[in-house]
Structure to design on (364 residues):
């Protein structure tokens, strides 16, 4: 029985749960390591993303006989110039639209209150059960607004503190990028050096597969998100939607979240469209639907292919679970993390299958 796969899997799960339980009991011992991990998490994440985006350029420059240090210098120059160009082009427009949106917020709130007053005036014409539902909904909205207003001051202070800390940490991202570009070939041999024989070969292959998985996901997902943002911007400009650039950028960023991103992106656009002109909300919905159909049927299959090959139901489950565990970062990183785990388990299964087949041939 000990050689059965289900028995070994069950024992592995039980041991993993036991290890997690023991870590929880002595978590204070690991607090310094947690603080260090949180400190380097953001710059390491940004450096890793930039590494996968710029590595093709590095390899191209080196193929032209350019030294490694000169290639890295050129890559950093391109990255800095690109960010500066983007900032110079869109920062003034975003600032203007953000200021306009802030000024228009009280008017939008008044419009929302008019809609609520209208619903209240029509409440008596509704059936008793519908009246109770409307009253509960309005009460919940009112309570949530009051709670949000009460905690807005502390939230704003926390946000400013985290923003300043984030800006400081972003300075570390270029350092991670430089060392990743400089020594990325040494990582796999270093880890594989702890093993021998076939295990070393398996570790090298698994690390290569992980690299392909992360590269395909990061490069593909960012390109897809950029193209979706461009499509939304074009559509919003055509219909004359206010704050088009701001809403398109929001849609581009939220599209990084698989499956749920488009639904998050359309909410503020629908609200602003309703306040601007009610029928424009229909146009916004059509634009989002067309953009998502183009993205899912033409762009993603050609850009990302089957980089992760995850079922949509699995995507939803993983994202919801990760969101409850780790918040917004869990939602953003859930799918690539799942892809990494899936790649490791797939390689383990293939290795086990090869061993069993080899053992069977020896018996024969």
């Amino acid at each position: 029985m000990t050689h059965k796969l289900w028995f070994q899997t069950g024992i592995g799960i039980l041991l993993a749960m036991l290890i997690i339980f023991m870590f929880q009991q002595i978590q204070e011992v690991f607090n310094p390591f947690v603080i260090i991990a949180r400190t380097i998490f953001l710059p390491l994440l940004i450096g890793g993303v930039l590494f996968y985006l710029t590595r093709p350029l590095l390899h191209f420059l080196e193929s032209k006989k350019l030294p490694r240090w000169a290639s890295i210098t050129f890559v950093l120059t391109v990255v800095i110039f690109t960010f500066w160009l983007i900032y110079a082009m869109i920062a003034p427009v975003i600032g203007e639209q953000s200021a306009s949106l802030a000024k228009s917020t009280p008017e939008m709130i008044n419009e929302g209150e008019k809609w609520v007053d209208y619903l209240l005036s029509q409440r008596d014409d509704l059936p008793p059960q519908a009246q109770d539902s409307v009253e509960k909904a309005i009460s919940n909205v009112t309570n949530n607004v009051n709670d949000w207003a009460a905690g807005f001051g502390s939230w704003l202070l926390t946000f400013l503190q985290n923003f300043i800390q984030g800006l400081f940490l972003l300075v570390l991202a270029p350092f991670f990028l430089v060392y990743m570009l400089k020594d990325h070939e040494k990582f796999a041999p270093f880890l594989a050096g702890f093993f021998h024989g076939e295990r070393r070969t398996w570790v090298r292959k698994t690390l290569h597969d992980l690299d392909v998985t992360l590269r395909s996901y990061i490069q593909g997902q960012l390109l897809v998100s950029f193209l979706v943002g461009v499509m939304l911007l074009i559509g919003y400009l055509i219909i004359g939607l206010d704050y088009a650039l701001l809403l398109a950028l929001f849609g581009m960023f939220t599209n990084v979240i698989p499956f749920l991103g488009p639904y998050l992106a359309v909410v503020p656009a629908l609200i602003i469209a309703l306040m601007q002109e009610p029928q424009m909300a229909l146009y916004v919905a059509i634009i989002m639907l067309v953009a998502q159909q183009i993205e899912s049927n033409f762009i993603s299959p050609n850009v990302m292919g089957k980089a992760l090959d995850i079922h949509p139901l699995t995507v939803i489950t993983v994202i919801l679970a990760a969101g409850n565990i780790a918040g917004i970062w869990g939602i953003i990183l859930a799918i690539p993390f799942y892809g990494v785990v899936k790649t490791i388990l797939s390689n383990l299964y293939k290795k086990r299958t090869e061993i069993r087949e080899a053992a069977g041939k020896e018996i024969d």
